[in-house]
Write a structure and sequence with these properties.
Shape: elongated
Largest sheet: 9 strands, mixed
Oligomer: single chain
Length: 403
């Protein structure tokens, strides 16, 4: 009997403890849900911009390679020993200026004899001509004298050409590079002595997609720059390849650029922008305002809240506003500002130019679009606008200062 009563007692204790635990868990969940339901939603500070139609300047952007308008590796034509080097690295040279002299003593020694042979052969030809006129000589003697004169003149011309080839001159005006030969060095034909580049005008070679080929034309203006934010060089298109590369579907384009400050160097990468005709009434936003996702591109639009906040949220806001009301004294309470919330709007984007992106559809002029702080937003989040700092203002100000 005692064992039965003890078992019943233990069963009642276990049941009471289990019931207490279940009640505590249910009560705790209810209180937690009620706390979070009545907790004020934090307000996110954002920057906005008003959607306005503007004049859109479309363009074709690419990355090109700089090349000198004239540039060669000056090489030796005939072998010999370097006798003189008459230039310094990065020196400006003129067309025809002597750069390197190869020893030509042997050729100059034979030059006197070659000239004497030409003179002798010339006199022999004249003498044979006079004899033929008198009927003393024959036509065969005249042809022999003429052949001897031609041979002597060819020998002289060959010596003079060799002497001229050993005096290596600049083919055009430009900047000479580092000497690649030394005094006294024996060089073989085709040995490069230095590179010569004309930096006053540069070529830029770049490629564009075949879809944009119809927008290009010879003489069309373009802008160039070493960075995207500094497109200070201007030029024009001078060549468009008539063939589309079947592998890449790109078209090769060449432009001439005035290298006014001499900062451009052959082989550099350079950014290219070919400006197209302006288009009015185009809606464009900073690219920071548009979020790209798997479901599409969207922006956050700021609008007035349609529903009033919950009672718990009102009490929290009143508690936060109480110290401010006490500090105002006799100034009186300021009128309440309208509640603002963020709404997610999906848009269709178009072309991009710089930090701007075209909005094809989804937005109407006059609405306020979030440009900063949207990473903290969700649909319906309360927001506060602070436009003291906007993305892109520093860039726009820098561009305005440079222009």
């Amino acid at each position: 009997m005692k064992r039965v009563l003890l078992a019943i007692f233990l069963l009642i204790v276990v049941g009471a403890i289990s019931g207490a635990l279940i009640w505590f868990n249910v009560f705790s969940n209810q209180m937690t849900a009620q706390f979070f339901a009545n907790m004020p939603v934090p307000t996110v500070t954002i920057s906005t911009i008003e959607v306005k139609p503007s004049t859109w300047t479309p363009g074709i952007e690419a990355v090109g390679t700089v090349q000198a308008s004239q540039g060669v590796d000056v090489a030796v034509e005939v072998g010999g020993v370097i006798k003189e080097i008459r230039f310094r690295a990065n020196e400006r040279v003129e067309a025809g200026q002597l750069l390197v002299q190869i020893d030509d003593a042997v050729e100059r020694a034979g030059l006197l004899g070659a000239r004497s042979s030409v003179a002798t052969a010339q006199e022999a030809l004249q003498r044979t001509q006079r004899l033929l006129d008198r009927g003393v000589s024959t036509v065969a003697d005249l042809q022999t004298a003429q052949n001897q004169l031609d041979t002597a003149q060819a020998t002289l011309a060959q010596l003079e050409a060799t002497i001229e080839q050993k005096a290596i001159t600049a083919p055009f005006a430009g900047t000479i590079g580092i000497a690649r030969v030394d005094l006294g060095q024996y060089v073989q034909p085709a040995t490069v002595i230095a590179t010569l580049q004309d930096f006053e005008t540069m070529k830029v070679n770049f490629n564009v997609p075949e879809q944009q080929l119809s927008s290009l034309s010879i003489g069309q203006s373009a802008q160039f720059g070493l960075t995207e934010d500094d497109m200070k060089y201007t030029g024009e298109i001078t060549g468009i390849d008539p063939k589309v590369d079947p592998a890449s579907r790109l078209v090769a384009v060449q432009a001439l650029v005035a290298n006014s400050d001499g900062a451009l160097r052959p082989g550099q990468f350079i950014r290219v922008r070919v400006n197209l005709p302006e288009e009015p009434n185009v809606v464009a936003l900073p690219q920071t305002a548009v979020t790209i996702s798997l479901y599409g591109s969207f922006v956050y639009v700021v609008e007035e809240a349609k529903d009033q906040p919950a009672q718990g949220q009102q009490q929290g806001q009143q508690a936060q506003q109480a110290p401010a009301a006490e500090g105002q004294g006799q100034a009186g309470q300021q009128p309440a500002q309208p509640k603002l919330v963020a709404r997610q709007v999906f848009v269709q984007t178009g072309r991009r130019v710089g930090d701007q992106i075209e909005i094809v559809s989804g937005l109407e002029p006059g609405v306020q679009v979030v440009t900063a702080g949207q990473n903290k937003l969700s649909p319906g989040s309360p927001v506060a606008i602070d436009n003291s700092v906007r993305p892109g203002d520093a860039t726009a100000e820098a561009q305005a200062t440079k222009s």
